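Here is one chain, start to finish.
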Amino acid sequence: MNHPIIGITTMRRVNQNGMPLVSLAEAYVDALYQAGACPVLIPNNITESALDELVSRLDGVVFSGGGDIDPGYYHAEDYSKVGGVEKQRDQIELSLLEMVIDENKPFLGICRGIQLINVGLGGSLYADISDQVLGADKHDYYPNWDRDHLAHTVRVEQESKLAEILGEVEVEVNSLHHQAVERLAADLIPTAHSPDGLVEGFELPGHPFGLAVQWHPEWLTAHKPMRDLFNAFVEAADSRKS
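Its structure:
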């Protein structure tokens, strides 16, 4: 059996000895392995030409979570609560997004990933939910909560691809973010919302599999709907490979 090859974006970290690392939570890799994929890490210091070569060999891409996106990309002023910005990562992932859309390769955005995709297609973000969204619920359940803590429900649009995949129109999810979609890019369709009305999912119509969620399903694979999300993504990548 030839497993579809799925690229996953990464972040840069420094260990206790000062050594730079290409970093990614193992949960992403495990979730893709469970769904039958062969995961490959995409370093964010890769050159554009090397990225182009790599993408030609990938069957799909996961835009993973991580630090905030440079506010300059969505025409916002610097904000005190914006943190963990990696400008090189932003540049590489925006180029990667353009490539996978142009080449009709399946992609799945997770947490930062949903924000990156929205910004890349012309949308904007709330730089900090608690400061900028009046009456918003708590969404930043970190670092003192378990990653699989079910923080709130999400309402999924009944006719959406996401509802078809999850098999439910309401699911419980974790919540590990302080930013969110503000203005949705014109090419995207919202498919899920939190109880306070924030966008928690969207899809790119006409694309073989262009979907993103604000929560972290890789930490929730004990729940069938989240396993089904990864299964559907990997199946789409496998179909394109075939």
